Amino acid sequence: MAVLKEYKCSGCGYEISATPTGHDMLMLADLFHFACKDCRQIVDVYVPHGKKLDEPVCPKCSSKNLDKQVWNPITGKCPKCNGSFEETGKVWMMD
Ligand SMILES: [Zn+2]
Ligand SMILES: [Zn+2]
């Protein structure tokens, strides 16, 4: 069970839902957030339990041009405008 929070970029208003640490364990897979350099979005990469995260692929544009580091909303920057994210206060759970 993961807790997702909604974040909004203070620069451009880009909204995402993300785990505060950038990764979490779900029922079927581990979830990681990455910043995609091609489509400039924060994307969710799922890795089935027992598998390694070798080369993350963007689920939106199939690019492998992702940031090497797992992205998190606390220290991570907005891939669109390089701004920082603020919590909007919305929180939900994900199995
Ligand atoms: Zn932004
Ligand atoms: Zn992409």
Quick description:
0% of the residues lie in helices and 41% in strands. It has 95 residues and is an all-beta fold.
Question: How would you describe this protein?
Answer:
This protein is an all-beta fold. The protein has one domain (2-94). 0% of the residues lie in helices and 41% in strands. The protein has no helices and six strands. Strands 2-1-6 form a three-stranded antiparallel sheet, with no helix packed on it. Strands 3-4-5 form a three-stranded antiparallel sheet, with no helix packed on it. Strand 1 (2-9) and strand 2 form a beta hairpin. The model has no long low-confidence stretch (mean pLDDT 95). The structure holds zinc ion (2 copies).
C-alpha end-to-end distance: 5 Å
Number of domains: 1
The helix/strand series, from N terminus to C terminus, equals: EEEEEE
Strand order of the largest sheet: 2-1-6
List the ligand species. zinc ion
Radius of gyration: 13 Å
What would you call the structural class? mainly beta
Produce the secondary structure layout.
Layout: E1 2-9, E2 15-18, E3 23-25, E4 29-35, E5 42-48, E6 85-94
Antiparallel strand pairs: 1-2, 1-6, 3-4, 4-5
The protein binds zinc ion (2 copies).
